[in-house]
What does this fold into?
Amino acid sequence: MGQWIWDTMFVIDLLSILPGTKELIREIFQNYWDFQDRWNARMPDYAHDMVTVAIKTAPQEVRQFSQIPILAWGVERVYRRNGDRELLAQCLHRLERFHEWFWRERDTTNVGLVTVGSYSGIVQHARWETFDYECNMDDLALTAHPSRKGPAESAWYGDICVTGNTSCLIMGERSLLRLARIVGDRPMAARRQGRIDRAVQAMRDHMWDEKAGTFLSVRRDTLEKIPVATISSWIPLTAGVPTEGMASRMAEVLANPAWQTPLPVPTADRSDTRWKSSAFWRGDVWPPTNYQIAGGLADYGYADLAAEIADKTIVNAVKNGISEHYDSVSGKPLGVRDYCMSCTLVTMMLDGLTQQYKVKFRDEPRAQ
It folds into this structure.
């Protein structure tokens, strides 16, 4: 049992709609900040302010790596729904510290692109920091820090910069920027804007591939593109990274057969030899990533394509039940039934991304 990062944010987004949940949501976030304090007490300065992938219940070992950085996005979503300014006071400076850890420990070449890593030195732990079995990380290796030296250093840092986590960090920075403006913290807003501008430009300069029509992960030290598109190639849409021209090309590619499986969007390009319709992050379909991609497409004006993805995701869940992920050809459920972050099936409808399916709320009983 434990409290993850990205799973939890999708759940509290919906939880915040319900009355009487403000204090509970603050407690959920306090778990992250309490972890930060415990972590900082035992780790060297450069590692300070990490938030682990999952705060596990005792007696499980502390995970030595983080996860897709969408905590700030979660705080903004909650605030937009319930207006809890106490949550902002509780979280904003903690979030900035977490973001600075991410840039310091994952943008190790100071280009504006983040990799994955783990203080355990175990490669699979580093992969678990993102969409963990993606084909673009098959030959991931961990190295020593490219510039920091010292007796305590070890091989903790991935040699591949990934599109998914870089995009989600930008998305989180945009949320933190808007929240800083809401509370009137202009210096924080200026710091976050600088991070956003640099990272967006780095992704456009180094990760965009016109032929592939999407963003590709790159080798950390050479910026050489890894020639396979995966689900994380489309997350830049959600983060507002592409130019209008890039977004047009992405929509064109997303509409072709390589990505329009019977149940879209597969987590790997169907033309890749490693693709398999039921494979974990290598051809299957996940509701939260479909929600993110559909939302990104809609933001760029491709509402019809967004609705096609969202409606097909909903009708498949109606037919086959709510599950963690699905086979992209048969639509059959995979993984854990009724999995928490598949609540994004509802969020797609609440956010107006669907055309065929809508959420209806039950009326309260009439007074007698």
